[in-house]
Amino acid sequence: MENIYIISCKVVLYYILLIETFLFSLEITINILKKGLIKLFTLSNPVKLFFGKGSFEKLGEAVDGLGTKALIVTGKSSARKHGFLQKAIELLAEKDIEAVPFEKVTPNPLSTTVDEGVKVIKEKRCDLVIGLGGGSAMDTAKAIAICAVNEGKITDYQPGGKYADKEPEETLPIVAVTTTAGTGSEYNRYLVITNVKTNEKPGIGYESTYPTVSIVDPRLMLTVPSEITADTGVDVLFHALEAYLSRESNRYSDLIAKEAIKLTVENLEAAIKDGKNIEARTKMAWANTLAGQAIDIAGTVAIHAAGHPLSGHYDLTHGKTLAALGVTYLEQNYQADPEKFASLAKLLGYQGDNLSIEELASKSPEALRNFLQKINRNLRINDLVKINEEDIKKLARDTFKTMQGAVLNNPRPLNTDDIENLYRESL
Length: 427
Ligand SMILES: [Fe+2]
Description:
This protein is an alpha/beta fold. It has 2 domains: 48-221, Rossmann fold (3-Layer(aba) Sandwich), CATH 3.40.50; 226-425, Dehydroquinate synthase-like - alpha domain (Dehydroquinate synthase-like, alpha domain, Up-down Bundle), CATH 1.20.1090.10. The chain contains 18 helices and 8 strands. The chain has helices at residues 2-35, 59-63, 78-81, 84-93, 111-124, 135-147, 226-245, 251-273, 278-298, 302-314, 318-333, 338-347, 357-362, 364-374, 381-384, 389-402, 404-408, 416-425; strands spanning 48-51, 69-75, 98-105, 128-133, 174-178, 190-192, 203-205, 213-216. Strands 1-8-5-4-2-3 form a 6-stranded parallel sheet, sandwiched between helices. A two-stranded antiparallel sheet has the order 6-7.
């Protein structure tokens, strides 16, 4: 009798254990599904990255074997003034690589400058392109690398162009040496060139436009003026923030985007106040690299989508246009994904306890405004340019034509009215 009792107890215990295991597994599965842990994604980034103080010294070693004659694409003065151009030429010479400087890049780089660079690279028979500078220099280098070995001009590859649907399979090898913590172009495929005929400023990018090698040396950033540090730092913040909010985000892009937001919130102000602060510069350089990869994976959303036309048509600084749209964007979109916007509010430094997720999400615009205020970038469109109702309609049309991918990434679907309202309420 006693034996039967013991066996019965064991059977009951066995079933209890079985049910508990089942419920536990079910709970984990539900949590996984809720948090999107099993969302399918693929990761690929072919860029060989040299990061950190002193990495510029490795330029020769980094490009050894990639070519014998390099076009160095850079801006009109700062790379020469600070000695980076000369140093690059010397480092390349150590590896018997000849250098041809092309010092014509402007902020908001132009399609005509790319055309000019393509002419030079063909005449001089260079077999390698090095972008030395901020996003403008690196993006121009990428565009030249496309057109050097493919048919047509860079504008042919932009939306509406005759090769818009054709992916260039090959480019010349691209090397990116960034001197700002801004576009993240050194660690992703994207390039943004202003079409001088239409003033459109689309972002394009292909498997072939990843840099083969990138160098991110924060020592090259120590001389960046405070105004440019602020504008490029804002770009880092919005890359990270928009990648985090994107419908295309995944567990990995969230991880790096959140780290980039945190690093920017903690270090941008210090880098602006004291440009020689190597620790702040290094952390912003890292934030930029991470944010550059985050947008490569998840893309941007409507802030960049609406910011590019504003910058292209009125020749405005990219970072300033993002700052002018950002707060309104959060006000108009926080209800689309309360959990993410709540987390964003905290990442942006919002201090507040006992709030529900929805309440915290509603604080994200205030948190962003407070941060932008600290770095003197709490801007409205009216602070940058005066635009009227007709301009707003033109800008919204342009947004859908040139930045449709970013519009589609938005956490809630957007139509032309929504984009017009984003401009209108940001005035
Ligand atoms: Fe950007």
